[in-house]
Amino acid sequence: MARTTVSRTVLLLLGVVLTAQLCGCTAYVGRGDGFSVEFIHRDDVRSPYHDPSLTAHERVLGAVRRSTARAAVLAPSHVRGDDDAPAPSTDGAVSEVTSKPFEYLMAVTVGTPSTRMLAIADTGSDLIWLNCTDDKDTPPPTGVFYPANSTTFGLVDCDSGACRALNDASCTQSNHCKYLYSYGDGSRTSGLLSTETFTFDDGVARHSDEAASLRVANVNFGCSTQNAGTFPADGLVGLGGGELSLVTQLGNDTSIGRKFSYCLVPYGLNASSALNFGARADVTEPGAATTRLVRSEIDTYYTVKLESIKIGNSSFKPHGSSRIIVDSGTTLTYLDKEVLDTLVEDLTKRIKLPKAESPEKLLQLCFDISHVREGQVEASLPDVTLQLGGGAAVTLKAENSFVVVQEGTMCLAMAAASQQNPVSILGNIAQQNMHVGYDLDKRTVTFAPADCASSYASVPAPSPSPEDKYLNI
Known about the structure:
One of its GO terms (molecular function) is aspartic-type endopeptidase activity. The chain has about 475 residues and is α+β, with helices and mostly antiparallel strands. It has helices spanning about 55-75, 160-165, 245-255, 335-350, 375-380, 400, 450-455; strands at about 25-30, 35-40, 105-110, 115-120, 130, 155, 170, 175-180, 190-200, 215-230, 235-240, 260-265, 275, 290, 305-310, 315, 325, 335, 365-370, 385-390, 395, 400-405, 410, 415, 425, 435-440, 445-450.
């Protein structure tokens, strides 16, 4: 691949202060300790996809519906029986990730002069791609990158390693790498694999009031000019473990290593979640538990070993695969059906609350809390402990296991993996108020309880609706 060698001695800052037409997100940068950007949930008031006509509970039900679609897409990642068996290449892994049921967004700025765009942030895919246009006669609309206007845009040759990392690539007459990306929902995107300078603005530095603008040259990304299907954002930033992901590219081209973390704020709070890179991704809070990544059929996904689930003195072991994907893009947690059935039976005996019907029959265990005081509800819910490989124990509090899906109805935020979708997934409700760190160099994932709303600097958001506080227990 023909590339210009550019010095990358400065630490990167990923994320920008978006203009008002996007979402008002803010990026944070430190000196020597990595950097952080806001991780915006699609239903957050900062998000352009926030629908103010929906109630808080309707947004939760929407997330549950999207979770089902997301689990179906991740299903091909069910894993081998041997923990140490060599895994196949990550080629093509991203083609199994649907574009529609996304949950989180982040900002990127590309080109010289720069264009600011809002992209899906996806821990279940690798490729960075952005909407592009090659129309020389019409000014590009908002959210579309025009490479002809950029002096730093480049094309990737067919014989490059980046091109070979794609599952479905071909050569143009000029020997440039053309790709076709097909998603699980039938959507497709295609264009030319390209390189570009990504510029990251320091909006609110933690340790300095000085604004800074950092530039990263020759980032591999897909310049997409043809889409089939509906893509609700300006592109997608892959945060998976494959060769073309942002995490891998940062690790290969800078000194910050291949590691990142996030701290997810519970639904309904008017504070932003944080997405961290470099040393800031280190999880050092008290109670941190580290488990190793295990090999799976698709290395893009972050897969760990689930040894058992414990409630009090009861313990339940998976009957099928012991693997579970840690995924920020899936709302619910999905478990082996036999384990979930046993878990539901145990919880039903322990929780002394009246049963309720599940809205739309989406969830298996629901309770009527309409006449129960808020503090009493939480006190009646037991902790659920996930025993992971290497002795790591991750405790799910009430807010990680249950969610209020409509006024007066609380449900277990877990569902059964099926024959059609035979994969276990640790979803984002289970990860709320946890600092979750991924280290691809050490091949580990670390979990620690954290108050995500106060532990990380955030920009004040508009006040939530009164019912938002009831979304989580």
